Model the fold of this input.
Amino acid sequence: MVNDTVIIAIITAVVSIGASIGATVLQMRKWKEGERPKSSADTADVLTGTSLELVSAIRKEMQVNKENAMNEIMTVRGELATVRIENYRMREKLTELEDVREWAERLVHQVRSLGGEPVKVRVVGIKT
Done:
């Protein structure tokens, strides 16, 4: 979406600048010849004004797009920070569970070495 807007903005800017340059060249040629008809001057003025309006509109649109992109980036960064915190907490919990598992395995070994049979563990499936 932003790429299309930027491409359109660039094309419009190039066409506008080209039209302005063309109008300026025509105007300068008329000045050199000593003839500057009012219609040519009016045309150059209209072309320049139109080009300026187009460039101004494109610049405003690009500024809005830039602000929207920055807001989206900030939102994504906030979400990423939240995910990182949650990931850290889950890693801590996993480490704790691994410690409990190792402890349970040692306890089972002790009970069996004393001739007993440990209580069966109840396995709960993880729902996704």
Notes: Residues 38-113 form the longest helix (76 residues). Helices lie at 2-33, 38-113. Residues 72 and 78 are 10 Å apart (CA to CA).
